[in-house]
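Quiz preparation item.
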């Protein structure tokens, strides 16, 4: 998966935050307006969206003379793919996974355990103990521990 530049990330953040999965998408003008404080030309935003479409990051549909854009995948799917790509960089995948598992917080470790249990069919549910869906709990870490410090077990 291609890494995104700063402006591409900002545009994708707008799409992920503004466009619900069932939406018909947004126009270049709507994206440009949502990029508050960036003073970007309309054509700059149009070029970025065109490049993101070329990379497969956004889908677009013609509406009259304009295009409507929406993310090709969720933010979570994109991040998961980046993590998988990082594992492919070389070295031992197992060692990298163990190091990662030891660096997450206790709460993050519980989310991983629940997801792995659900995937293996052990829990039979995509829900965590507190009733939230697992995908609802993967918004980001609440804190990081140094890489050498073990996670709560």
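Solution:
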């Amino acid at each position: 998966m291609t890494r995104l530049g700063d402006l591409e990330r900002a545009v994708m953040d707008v799409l992920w935050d503004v466009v619900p999965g069932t939406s018909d998408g947004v126009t270049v003008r709507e994206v440009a307006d949502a990029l508050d404080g960036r003073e970007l030309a309309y054509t700059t935003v149009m070029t970025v969206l065109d490049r993101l479409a070329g990379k497969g990051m956004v889908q677009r549909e013609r509406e009259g003379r304009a295009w409507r854009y929406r993310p090709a995948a969720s933010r979570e799917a994109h991040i998961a793919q980046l993590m998988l790509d990082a594992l492919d960089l070389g070295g031992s995948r197992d060692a990298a996974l163990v190091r990662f598992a030891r660096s997450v917080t206790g709460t993050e470790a519980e989310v991983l355990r629940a997801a792995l249990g659900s995937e293996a069919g052990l829990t039979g549910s995509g829900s965590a103990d507190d009733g939230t869906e697992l995908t609802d709990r993967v918004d980001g870490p609440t804190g990081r521990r140094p890489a050498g410090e073990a996670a709560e077990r």
